Write the structure tokens for this entry.
Amino acid sequence: MRTPGAGMISYKVTVGPMVYYYNGERKWFPSQTVNLAGYIPAAGNAVRVLLYLDLSIGFISVSSSAEVVKPATPLYPDPPNGAIPSAYFYIEDTYTTLSMTNDYHDARPFLGGSVIPAATSPGQVIISDESSDWTVGSPMISEDDAWMVGDDDLLIVV
């Protein structure tokens, strides 16, 4: 997620490229720039917007909270079903640019947003393949107490 440099009069935000999975297929999202100028709230108000990848169309969409009178804090909008959240931006009526320092909150799901299983005994690891399916297992340990990897450089788990 990139925003314009300081001093620019812009609400344009670029969501960078990524690989994602939809209906069991690996997909590529190349990048998209979204202009958030249409979300500038009325005088004296603030709003929070969510940028998310709409999996059904493969493009970035935006949802917003209700406007609130400052100094109240707007709620974080929930991502819709079938979406990969990217970022939240806080916007006040007086803003002329967006800041990654003050206005941005990362909305990306931790570890792909999948349900993560819990380890059930000491020494277990949680691993995932490219499909973001998570499993728990115990790594094989060599004679010199190092984790073992296969010829493909992947951790060997039993």
User: Anything to note?
Assistant: The first strand starts at residue 12 and ends at 15. The mean pLDDT is 83.
